[in-house]
Design goal:
- By secondary structure, this protein is mainly alpha-helical.
- It has two domains: about 60 residues, Winged helix-like DNA-binding domain superfamily/Winged helix DNA-binding domain (Arc Repressor Mutant, subunit A, Orthogonal Bundle); about 60 residues, Diphtheria Toxin Repressor, domain 2 (Orthogonal Bundle).
- About 75% of the residues lie in helices and about 5% in strands.
- It contains six helices and two strands; from the N terminus they run αααββααα.
- The protein has a two-stranded antiparallel ribbon with strand order 1-2.
- A hairpin with a 5-residue loop joins strand 1 and strand 2.
- The chain is elongated.
- The N and C termini lie far apart (about 45 Å).
- The relative contact order is 0.12.
């Protein structure tokens, strides 16, 4: 797998999220979602396409490749779990989401898996009570 950076991961996660909400994803949708200029998104889509993270149809519809989807789902899972955990700890939802967005890119796989295991174990224990 090619190395990624926070920008690549954010674009892939955004494409994944939009693909769950919209029938098709286009550059303009990504631009609107992230608040970026269309020209910036166009450059990013070119890079994602060249690195084989996305496929762009002749109509401009963007689809994640298997490699792109794997990264997007990993980042999305991290964001959802970390955001939820921070909210449970009493952090405001907006701040929890913003912080999760920062943490999701830098946390090691080992640390994330340990947090995930702890949260799942706690939920199982809570459901038994």
């Amino acid at each position: 797998m090619l190395t990624t950076n926070e920008s690549v991961e954010n674009y892939l996660e955004t494409i994944l999220i939009l693909s769950k909400k919209l029938p098709v994803v286009r550059s303009v949708d990504i631009s609107n979602e992230l608040g970026y200029k269309k020209s910036s998104v166009s450059v990013a889509m070119k890079n994602l396409r060249e690195n084989q993270y996305i496929v762009v149809s002749d109509s401009g519809f963007i689809t994640l490749t298997d490699a792109g989807r794997d990264i997007a789902e990993m980042i999305y899972e991290r964001h959802a779990l970390l955001s939820s955990l921070l909210t449970e700890l009493g952090v405001d939802e907006k701040i929890a989401s913003e912080d999760a967005c920062k943490i999701e890119h830098v946390i090691s796989k080992e640390s994330f898996e340990a947090i995930k295991k702890h949260v799942m174990k706690r939920k199982q224990t809570d459901s038994l009570l």
